[in-house]
Structures are given as structure tokens and as C-alpha cells.
UniProtKB/TrEMBL annotation:
Lineage: Bacteria, Pseudomonadati, Pseudomonadota, Alphaproteobacteria, Rhodobacterales
Matches recorded under InterPro entries: Bact_Sigma-Reg (IPR052016), CheY-like_superfamily (IPR011006), PPM-type-like_dom_sf (IPR036457), PPM-type_phosphatase-like_dom (IPR001932), Sig_transdc_resp-reg_receiver (IPR001789)
One GO molecular-function entry: phosphatase activity
Response regulatory domain mapped to chain residues: 20-136
GO biological process: phosphorelay signal transduction system
Protein name, entry field: Phosphate regulon transcriptional regulatory protein PhoB
Superkingdom per UniProt: Bacteria
Species of origin: Tritonibacter horizontis
Length: 423
């Protein structure tokens, strides 16, 4: 490595900036004069008689600095500069044209060809050192920028690899989460439950479900875990186990009677058990809102607990609607809290809609939220006579329409629709 050299009183490190200089001139005398000065200042110098020879040198080993005469036989300095810039690799070389031309249009032509600077013949030693000094600073900054860009590109490549791996895991996680809701439609005698679950990302924090321990008895729910993403999804996976429709011995909504059959626990007791379990787990900051109901399919009696969830909407067979519930406190937020249970009766043809706040808090085209009034209007626009599955699909479609094409889902969308048709 060459030692540091001084130009115009500045110490300029050779490494990382200008080390190798190419002098291109058809005059052997002019080359000797320039080469002598450059070598005295500590540079490695390569010579060429014309543009063609210079291009061969540049292709083999590009120099840091090029001093090229403008007027040369064959390929002149402008043509050489233009070809060099066209073929140059990522490493930038500083290009100075040596010329007797000083007209503005000629200078513009040189700049347009890719020249960085000009020196007028005969070349002054002091001026040459000053121009090299300027080139040194520019090359140093350019190469520092190139190195930073390289690091950024490598980092982005590494991040892309990590992102692809995470994306693959999230796709698999979504399949696992979808398995928590194995069926979206299920009949219980003449009655029916339909589910809607639309996460805003790969995975979400909403959970809907249903289960039945026997004839004429069933439970259904709508849950919205706080936050979004992976932590919320992990909580829904846990809750899916607590309210399993397959493993009744794990389902906190059921209890075994006389060691013979399972019975449904009262909704307020289910909410209290879930609240106690979450509070007991230290380090868990997530909580969730819930509307949980059990139904007697013979009488239409519904027992419900509302824990911070949006008010369920009772859609009567005659077309009237009413919100049910008094609010309540989310599960996992406050210890030793009691939950109130509500009871009401559904008539044949009535529907009960449990839904997450992804509906009512959806942002419309004008930036406002849909809210409960807008939600009711949205339901009125749906065909109330269609089956439950088509009703939920149409409700979701109309929601996306009022949100506008440029607004994706900002929150998970979910709903549970229970339709009572008597014993």
C-alpha cells in the first residue's frame, strides 16, 4: 500500500480514494510531464497513447483517476469518456479532460459525455494538484456512499430472507388458526349457527365458535382478543382449547354430571373461570372481549354474558331489531370480578348476531367510522330472507364496499349468527 500523500497541504490517504491514475495522450512529451508529477506525488501511473488502448486498460483494471487529452487521432477524449462511462462497473472513476477548448458549448459537450472536470493546456502543476484534490474528496464520498449502499443492500437481502421465513411460518400459522374453526355452518336440530372469520393479516385475534354437549343444548360465542398479530393469535389458539367443540373435558363451558354426561355451565360462570385463568398467568398482558350464549333449542331461552363485547343484535322474524346486553368488563382485565347473566327468549325465525368491533369501527371512505347506526343500516340493506351463510357473506361484502377500494381491513372481522327455528 502506498503511503499517504499531500496535495495542496492536504493529507490524502491513497487507500480508498485515488491510487491508480491513467494518463491518455497521443503526445509522448505531454505524458512524460504529467507522469513525472503524478509519480512524484505518490501515485501509481499507467499510460496510453489513445482512446482504444485506454479502453483496454480500463476493461482490465479500471483506474481511480483518468487524465485524458481531448484531441487525439482515432478515438478522441470525448468518445473515450462516453464509452468508458457506458462500460464502467460499479466502482466510479474520476475523469478529467485536458483541452485547449474553453467555449461553453464545448465544455457542456464534455460534461454530457461524462467528464467530471476540465484542465486547460498547458497544464499547470498547481492547478493539476488542486483538481486531483477535488477529485479525491468526491471519490472518497462516492465510495463511502457506495459502501453504505452495499451494506444496505446486503441487509435488505438478509431481511428479505428473514421476512420470507416469517411469511412462510405465518401462512402455516393461519392454517393452524383456521383449524380452530373447522366448520362455519352447523345445524342443531332445526336451528343453525353460521360463523364468519376474516383476519386483517395472515393471522388474527378474533375467534368464533359453537359446541353442543347433547340434544337441544348448545353454546356459541364471539371473542376479540386485544391487539393484533402473533400474540393475539396465540391467545385465540389457547381460547380455542378452552372452548373446544371436540374435547369436552377441556371445555370450560361444560361440566360432567354424575360421571355420565356433559352439561352446559351458566355463561357468567364461564366468564369468571376464563377471567381467573388469565389473571393467574403472570406476564400475560392480553385480555379479550366476549359475548357467550347458551341456548335451549326447545324453548328458545337464551342465557348470555357480555364481557366488554359489542352489544349483540337480535333480528326478529318480523323485521324489527334490538341490541341486547349491558356491556360488562373484558375478560382478563380485572381480578375477582363477577359477570352478570342476561336471559331472553327467541321466537321461531329470530336470529341473534354476535360480532366484533371490526364492523362498527371500520373506517368509511370519508374517514368516519361505521358505528352502530351505520351497522344497522348495513344490515337493512342485506336480504333478510336468505340463509345464514349467505347473509353473513353479503354483510361482509357490503362492509368492504362502504370502506372503499383503497382501505384494507384495519381490524379483524368476525361474526356468529344463531337462527332459532324451534324444536
Amino acid at each position: 500500500m502506498l503511503p499517504e500523500h499531500s496535495i495542496n497541504g492536504e493529507d490524502l490517504p491513497v487507500s480508498g480514494s485515488i491510487r491508480r491514475v491513467l494518463v491518455v495522450d497521443d503526445s509522448r512529451l505531454q505524458r512524460r510531464i504529467l507522469v513525472a508529477s503524478l509519480k512524484k506525488w505518490g501515485f501509481e501511473v499507467v499510460e496510453a497513447e489513445g482512446g482504444e488502448e485506454a479502453m483496454e486498460i480500463c476493461r482490465a483494471d479500471p483506474p481511480d483517476l483518468i487524465l485524458s487529452d481531448w484531441m487525439m487521432p482515432g478515438m478522441n477524449g470525448i468518445e473515450f469518456c462516453r464509452m468508458f462511462r457506458a462500460e464502467s462497473n460499479e466502482a466510479y472513476s474520476y475523469f478529467i479532460l485536458l483541452t485547449s477548448k474553453s467555449e461553453k458549448n464545448e465544455v457542456a459537450e464534455g460534461l454530457d459525455a461524462g467528464a467530471d472536470d476540465f484542465l486547460t493546456k498547458p497544464v499547470s502543476s498547481d492547478e493539476l494538484r488542486a483538481r486531483i484534490s477535488a477529485g479525491e474528496r468526491i471519490l472518497r464520498m462516492q465510495r463511502e456512499l457506495f459502501e453504505k449502499n452495499r451494506i444496505v443492500s446486503e441487509t435488505l437481502g438478509e431481511l428479505q430472507t428473514v421476512y420470507d421465513a416469517i411469511d412462510k411460518d405465518l401462512i402455516q400459522a393461519r392454517k393452524i388458526q383456521e383449524s380452530l374453526v373447522p366448520e362455519l355452518t352447523r345445524s342443531f336440530g332445526a336451528s343453525e349457527v353460521n360463523l364468519l372469520l376474516k383476519p386483517c393479516g395472515h393471522i388474527g385475534g378474533d375467534l368464533v365458535g359453537m359446541f353442543s354437549p347433547g340434544i337441544n343444548r348448545m353454546g356459541f360465542y364471539s371473542i376479540d382478543v386485544s391487539g393484533h398479530g402473533i400474540t393475539s393469535a396465540m391467545m385465540t389458539a389457547r381460547l380455542g382449547g378452552y372452548l373446544s367443540s371436540t374435547y369436552f373435558d377441556q371445555n370450560v363451558g361444560m361440566e360432567k354430571k354424575f360421571n355420565r354426561f356433559y352439561a352446559l355451565r351458566p355463561p357468567e360462570e364461564v366468564a369468571s373461570v376464563l377471567n381467573a385463568r388469565l389473571i393467574a398467568d403472570t406476564g400475560i398482558e392480553e385480555y379479550f372481549t366476549m359475548a357467550y350464549c347458551i341456548a335451549d333449542l326447545r324453548t328458545g331461552v337464551i342465557k348470555m354474558v357480555q364481557a366488554g363485547h359489542p352489544h349483540p343484535l337480535l333480528l326478529r322474524a318480523d323485521g324489527s331489531m334490538e341490541f341486547i346486553g349491558k356491556g360488562g368488563v373484558p375478560v382478563g382485565l380485572v381480578p375477582d370480578i363477577t359477570y352478570d347473566q342476561e336471559e331472553f327468549v327467541m321466537e321461531k325465525g329470530d336470529r341473534l348476531l354476535l360480532y366484533s368491533d371490526g364492523f362498527t369501527e371500520a373506517h368509511l371512505k370519508d374517514g368516519s367510522m361505521l358505528d352502530t347506526d351505520g351497522f344497522v343500516e348495513l344490515i337493512k340493506r342485506c336480504n333478510a330472507r336468505q340463509n345464514g351463510k349467505d347473509f353473513l357473506d353479503e354483510l361482509y361484502l357490503k362492509l368492504t364496499e362502504v370502506m372503499g377500494d383503497d382501505k384494507g381491513l384495519e381490524d379483524d372481522i368476525s361474526a356468529t349468527l344463531f337462527e332459532f327455528q324451534g324444536p
